[in-house]
Amino acid sequence: MSDWPGDPIEQLVGLLARLPGLGRRSARRAALKMLMQPDRVMLPLAAALQAAAAAVQPCRICGNLDTRNPCGICRDPQRDRGLICVVEGVAELWALERAHAHRGLYHVLGGTLSALGGVGPEDLAVQPLLARIAGAGEAERVEEVILALPATVDGATTAHYLSDRLVGSGVRVTRLAQGVPMGGALDVLDEGTLAAALKARRDL
Amino acid sequence: MSDWPGDPIEQLVGLLARLPGLGRRSARRAALKMLMQPDRVMLPLAAALQAAAAAVQPCRICGNLDTRNPCGICRDPQRDRGLICVVEGVAELWALERAHAHRGLYHVLGGTLSALGGVGPEDLAVQPLLARIAGAGEAERVEEVILALPATVDGATTAHYLSDRLVGSGVRVTRLAQGVPMGGALDVLDEGTLAAALKARRDL
Fold first, then answer.
1. CA B102, CA A32: separation in Å to the nearest integer?
2. Where is the Toprim domain (chains A, B) (predicted)?
3. pLDDT category, B203, cuts 50, 70, 90?
4. Residue A27 CA, distance from chain mean position
């Protein structure tokens, strides 16, 4: 190992350590593993990074990241264009897609309102959402907006704000159900979730 | 997110997921973070990977990975050439270098002997080590070999094997001390370590 700055190994470790989930220690392990077999992982990864950086961009309609613009979801004729699911970020959009549970379109807000964090409506894609709903043609009229926002104070604030802004638009506004997660053991669940699950109980 | 194979995003996630310490979930998070700011992390990382793959190679003397061959440590005139520290892999070499505790040279074995894993002496850099000791000139005579091998059954087997092979070479063979790690709470330490630490106790 060499200690002078500009050393390719140290530079690689430094960049890997910036990725979420990798600390300096695991970045070093990852670099080492790659250095042992440069052709199998290292050069393909370099090529993949360049290809993705060149090809991927935010969708101008919904904010999803994709190689096409509008993105594959917005272009998909099978999707219900009357149903828009509002999410905080692209990570949440991808998670919902993996669940194969939503057959409509999406709208990426780019965050949630936060008084403490100084995030106001003008910092989020609120105006584009309203414009999208107002501007939809007769055939593509938006019937329902599903607010799939985090179950946090900021998420709830954002949901209330959006629901206020949508009053009078004729659009139905819904939010995700709260309750016990699949496979979740009751004794490790927080009280808030338990209370919400009990309150929203359903007949068998 | 798109599902067709050959999609740049999926390809990038797949390659990132092969790194140690990154599962598929964290690979996706890392890819997403990079895609949000391609110029700050993605393209520099691609360049660093290519630079390191092109520049880094195993040292022909000790087996360390470096941009120079022989490596920076083997070239360093300040290093004690009479002292060789034998390590399992480059990761261990780097860890010892970070500790700034060894002022001699290294020798990377490339593993440990393992009856179960089918690893014999011919699979490790044993012969190069013996040749290195036998071939050293008068001025660079090897005085001591420190076996810095893991405190496992395979590590101990390897240490015994090497120490046998070095009998009669006139070289002093030592191994790392075993005991309580710095800051280690006694109640969570395994019994083997505790017994070893007690046996190797020293006067204050």
1. 21
2. 82-181
3. low
4. 25
| B48 & B71 share domain | no
Q: Is B122 exposed, middle or buried (0-12, 13-18, 19+ CB in 10 A)?
A: exposed
- Is the Cβ pair A53, B42 closer than 8 Å? yes
Q: What's the CATH number where A73 sits?
A: 3.40.1360.10
In total, how many domains does chain A have? Answer: 2
- Cβ contacts of B56 on chain A, cutoff 8 Å: 8-9, 35, 38
Complex ipTM value: 0.70
Say if residue B40 is in the same domain as residue B82: no
Give tens-digit pLDDT for A80-98: 999 999 999 998 898 888 8
Can you tell me the distance from the alpha carbon of B189 to that of B195, in angstroms, rounded to the nearest whole number?
Answer: 10
B70 and B29 within one domain: no
The reported pLDDT for the residue numbered A6 is: 59
Contact pairs from chain A to chain B, CB under 8 Å:
184
CA distances from A129 to A60, A106, A126, B189 (A): 12, 10, 5, 57
- For tokens 């006139």, the residue is B170
A88, A154: one domain: yes
Measure CB to CB from residue A45 to each of B1, B15, B26 and give the nearest one: B15
Give the C-alpha separation, A16 to B45, whole Å.
7
Distance between A94 CA and the closest CA of chain B, angstroms? 6
Mean pLDDT of all residues in A1-7: 53
Q: What is the CATH number of the domain that holds B46?
A: 1.10.8.420
Encode pLDDT of A173-185 as tens digits.
998 887 777 776 7
Is A131 part of any domain?
yes
Q: Which of B45, B74, B78 to mutate to test the interface with A (most CBs of A within 10 A)?
A: B45
Chain B CA closest to residue A34: B19
